[in-house]
Amino acid sequence: MNWIDYRSLPQVGGITELFKDYVSEFKKVQQFYELDYQTLDNFGVRCEKIRSEYRLRYDINGILLRQNKDFGCSEETFININKLEEENTFAIVTGQQVGILSGPLYTIYKIITLLKLTELLNKRYQNLKFVPVFWLEGEDHDFEEVNKVKILDQENRIKTIEYLMQAKQNQHGSVGSYVFDHQIENFIKELSSALPSSEFKSNIIEAAAAIYTAGSTFESAFVKWINRLFPQSGIIFFSSNDKEVKLLLSGIFQKEINECPNTSRLVIQKSAELEDNYHVQMKPRALNLFMFYKGGRYLIEPREHDFSLKGTRHYLTKEELLQIATQTPEQLSPNVVLRPICQDTLLPTAAYIAGPSEIAYFAQLKSVYKHFDITMPIIYPRVSVTLVEDKVMRILEKYELSVRDIFNGIETVTGRVVDFVSEVKIDDLFSDSYKRIDDILNEMKFGLGYIDQTLLGALETTRVKIEENFKLLNNRTIMAQKRKHEIAIKQVEKALNHLFPGGNFQERELNIINYLNKYGTEFPQWLMREIDIDKFKQQIVEIT
Question: How far apart, in whole angstroms, are the C-alpha atoms of residue 131 and residue 339?
Answer without folding.
Answer: 20
